[in-house]
Write a structure and sequence with these properties.
mainly alpha; two-stranded antiparallel sheet; 895 residues
Length: 895
């Protein structure tokens, strides 16, 4: 401060001596600009930057279930939250660049601008600024710091391979100060973790820790080193590092997780080896500071008991983990998953499905094997639906056959049970808060009791198996449902819906089945008007509050027939899932046998006999095996399944023969197409439609027929035929892109990579997109760009094709090939540079007409264009090509 006041004094004195004469470009002017740039403008900008960093780090939530992030970088949410402060920084620093050009704070301002863009999540703008610093101030300390932030921008763009290469390059060419080297090592460690090179990451962190002076940061890096050592299997050294963390008195959460991870580093093989870990965890339960972590401690105890195969204790601890979990959804998801896995292993599929539901609801989608867990949940959801449907239809048919008085009596019991549940709900709501308070007090008592003997919590002795009965008159089923609802969701109001919606999951077998077979819920009775009136008349005589119990009972022959069909489908499909997805032979046999026994003449009878013949493999089941074989041969002598008894490869051979037939037919059809014999093409198309409906080659017959006859169609007719083709075969069809391009051409349009189009006047089909400011300069250097969907094509193969093409035709041109991701779907191959528009167009025309090249990139209609470097920069900022194509078609193709 004294120095600052002294400088002000000198400045005032100088003004007095010079009489306020012009100071432009003088030493005094530079001194003044330095003074105001530093202590006024830059100071305020830097304070805002510190506020942004502090806000980002304060709001950052560590996930201790995974390796911690070395540095707390912004995500999309925090980037948006930082916008106002970042705008302030950009305004202030821009003022220095514009009005304080003589000051020494120009390079600092550029660096602060780059960092500000980084914390807003605008990594492209940040890279532009930082790369400018790197080039403009080569060899300086500020250029070295810019290189660190360049690496961080690349990391945030998920370019881990490129980031590693960049860091390796600059480390080999530059001598860094200790502090900048530390920041570079931390960044490299993050990249190594993403690349799963945990040993290299731990070594980089060990080196970085030497230069770290801040206590909290040092503890964090030591903790991550321990995690990495644990990941590589070096459990002894990992334990040592966790103990180092604890000794440093870190934040309590980190100290707690260090203790938890130490327990993971012990090898547990038997009860003796488990004792020290169990003792550590139980001791942690007695510490008041750990109340908020009871969920995790109980989870660890549950996992420990699972290792020892103490499934009952494990089940108790996992449920306690869920009960004590307040806000850690991912941890709750893990507890639900372990319970679900346990019930799944016990073949209690209904209960497993409920817990997998909760797993999916709570578990983070980034969790390892999340997709597999979700797929299993989807499969079990279908299985449980089929099981419940079969049980319900059986019960409803039973009710329909009962005398009226007996049926009414059972429904009255169900109604009274419902009223009782409502009253119990009201009472439970009043007791809920009291119970929760008591549970907290009981936790320590339970721990003390456990030291003397196992204490089983209430509700743990429910019988989870038993013969399925109709829900309304099966009291154990109702009790089980209520019990498991409480375990799964806690004590909630009854209006909460426990049956959650399923997340979208690709599960091939089930989806294929749904496409080929009628959905069970779509099997409904078609009632005559007379039957409808009879049912309405019957229900009018039933008290309104009881009518819902009667609506699904199949009273009419049509309703009974539909109910039986639903039961048949449910039993068959449940058996298929047991057999194919779960490999649960016993349950598959049970489902198939039940279906055969109740419906021996169903359309699946031959299928069931054959499968049961295969499933009975034990010597004790030899008679059953023979019985199903005899029934199949006796009752279905002409069935394919009888042939399969003698030739197990029959279906495979049949499918192979069918594929050979259709391939031969298609080859013949293509020859007709080349010969312009459209009549024969159409005839073969009709044959394929009749004989090979659903085969993957079917669309190709249809497309050849359309194209061959195109010359005989009016433009509108051809457009309709192609549009109908797309509707029939969907966007997933491999011909879709070609058809889209043809439609775009017919509509006088140019195809855009994301499927939208622009017409030749530059007017978009989808209005409302703001047009960016692109420039036109035909004499300036141009780039060639090939845009493609990264998930459909191999970028390495495409780069190789371009490299070979350039070597063959442009060997002396010194062209460079680069690749960037424009967005999540679209990748750009950039060839640069050409001296002007005409040379770039020559290259584009050559690419477009080279059949050998188009074959190599596996795309006959490539998305290619030329572009100025400035326009490419603007397009990449927008992360889309539509707006540039509007400009491109208007300005590059206008006459």
């Amino acid at each position: 401060m004294r120095k600052f006041l002294f400088q002000i004094f000198i400045w005032v004195a100088v003004l007095s001596l010079t009489g306020c004469a012009s100071l432009k470009n003088s030493k005094i002017d530079k001194f003044y600009q330095n003074l105001t740039a530093h202590y006024n403008i830059y100071f305020n900008a830097y304070q805002s930057y510190l506020k942004v960093v502090n806000q980002t780090e304060t709001n950052y939530v560590d996930d201790y279930t995974n390796i911690l992030h070395v540095l707390k970088f912004p995500d999309e949410t925090s980037g948006k939250a930082n916008s106002s402060n970042v705008d302030f920084i950009l305004t202030k620093c821009s003022k220095i660049l514009e009005k304080k050009k003589l000051s020494n704070w120009i390079d600092d301002s550029y660096l602060l601008i780059g960092k500000a863009y980084f914390y807003r999540g605008d990594y492209f703008s940040a890279l532009e600024t930082l790369q400018y610093i790197e080039d403009e101030y080569q060899g300086s300390t500020i250029a070295q710091e810019a290189q660190v932030w360049i690496a961080r921008c690349m990391y945030q763009q998920k370019k881990y391979g490129e980031t590693k290469a960049f860091i390796t390059l600059i480390k080999s060419n530059t001598a860094f100060s200790n502090q900048i080297l530390k920041e570079l090592l931390l960044t490299e460690a993050m990249v190594d973790i993403k690349n799963e090179n945990y040993l290299a990451a731990s070594n980089n962190l060990k080196e970085a820790v030497k230069y770290e002076n801040k206590k909290t940061n040092k503890s964090r890096y030591l903790f991550i080193i321990a995690q990495l050592l644990q990941k590589t299997g070096n459990l002894k050294q990992a334990t040592e590092y966790y103990e180092k963390v604890i000794k440093r008195n870190p934040p309590y959460e980190m100290a707690f997780h260090s203790k938890i991870e130490i327990s993971h580093c012990y090898s547990v093989t038997d009860e003796k080896s488990a004792r020290p870990i169990r003792g550590l965890l139980e001791k942690m339960l007695l510490d008041d500071k750990n109340i908020q972590y009871f969920d995790q401690i109980y989870l660890e105890l549950g996992l420990l008991e699972l290792k020892l195969n103490n499934t009952k204790k494990a089940e108790e601890y996992l449920k306690l983990s869920i009960k004590y979990n307040q806000s850690n959804e991912n941890l709750k998801g893990v507890a639900f998953m372990k319970l679900a896995d346990y019930y799944f292993s016990m073949q209690n599929y209904k209960l497993a499905k409920s817990y997998y539901d909760s797993t999916i609801t709570n578990l983070n989608e980034n969790y390892p094997d999340y997709d597999k867990i979700s797929a299993r949940n989807k499969m079990l959801a279908d299985l449980v639906k089929y099981i419940v449907t079969a049980e319900a239809e059986d019960s409803l048919q039973y009710l329909a056959r009962l005398p009226e008085k007996s049926r009414d009596s059972l429904i009255n019991i169900a109604y009274e049970n419902e009223l009782k549940q409502i009253r119990e709900k009201e009472k439970a709501e009043q007791e809920r808060k009291m119970a929760e308070e008591q549970e907290m007090r009981m936790s320590r008592q339970m721990m003390q009791s456990r030291q003397q003997g196992y204490m089983q919590p209430p509700g743990m002795d429910d019988n989870l198996s038993g013969k399925a009965k109709w829900y309304f008159y099966n009291q154990s089923a109702m009790t089980l449902g209520k019990s498991e609802f409480m375990v799964k969701w806690g004590k909630r109001k009854l209006e909460d819906n426990w049956r959650i919606s399923q997340k979208n999951t690709d599960f091939g077998e089930v989806e294929e089945e749904t496409e080929k077979e009628e959905a069970i819920e779509d099997i409904v009775a078609v009632l005559s008007e007379t039957e409808k009136k009879q049912i309405d008349s019957f229900l009018k005589n039933i008290p309104k509050e009881k009518q819902k119990y009667y609506t699904d009972i199949p009273f009419t022959p049509a309703q009974m027939e539909a109910s039986r069909k639903r039961e048949i489908e449910a039993l068959k499909r449940a058996g298929d899932i047991f057999l194919e997805s779960l490999k649960d032979t016993a349950s598959a046999i049970q489902s198939y046998e039940k279906l055969l026994k109740k419906y021996p003449d169903s359309k699946y009878a031959a299928y069931l006999h054959y499968n049961l013949y295969l499933l009975y493999t034990k010597p004790a089941d030899a008679d059953k095996k023979s019985a199903h074989k005899e029934a199949l041969q006796r009752d279905f002598p002409n069935s394919d399944f009888v042939i399969l008894l003698e030739n197990p490869d029959y279906f495979k051979e049949k499918l192979l023969a069918r594929n050979t037939e259709i391939q031969q037919l298609y080859s013949q059809t293509y020859e007709y197409y080349l010969a312009n014999d459209c009549k024969k093409v159409q005839e073969n198309n009709e044959i394929s439609k009749t004989k090979y409906s659903g085969h993957q080659l079917r669309p190709y017959f249809e497309y050849l027929s359309i194209i061959c006859n195109a010359k005989n169609m009016k433009k509108d007719e051809l457009i309709k035929a192609l549009t109908d083709f797309q509707k029939s075969y969907g966007k997933e069809n491999k011909l879709n892109d070609e058809v889209s391009n043809l439609l775009a051409y017919l509509n006088n349009e140019i195809v855009i990579s994301d499927g939208s189009t622009t017409n030749k006047e530059g007017k978009k089909d989808e209005p409302g997109t703001e047009k960016p400011a692109f420039i036109l300069d035909n004499k300036a250097p141009h780039y060639f760009v090939y845009a493609f969907e990264s998930r459909k094509y191999n970028s390495n193969e495409i780069k190789t094709a371009f490299s070979e093409y350039n070597a063959k035709f442009y060997g002396m041109a010194n062209l460079e090939i680069n690749s960037i991701m424009l967005n999540n779907d679209l990748q750009l191959i950039i060839v640069r540079e050409f001296p002007d528009k005409e040379k770039a167009f020559e290259y584009l025309a050559g690419i477009k007409s080279d059949e050998n090249f188009l074959t190599k990139i596996k795309n006959r209609n490539p998305q290619i264009f030329i572009i100025l470097q400035e326009n490419l920069t603007e397009m990449v900022k927008k992360q889309e090509v539509k707006s540039y194509f509007d400009f491109y078609t208007k300005n590059y193709f206008s006459k």
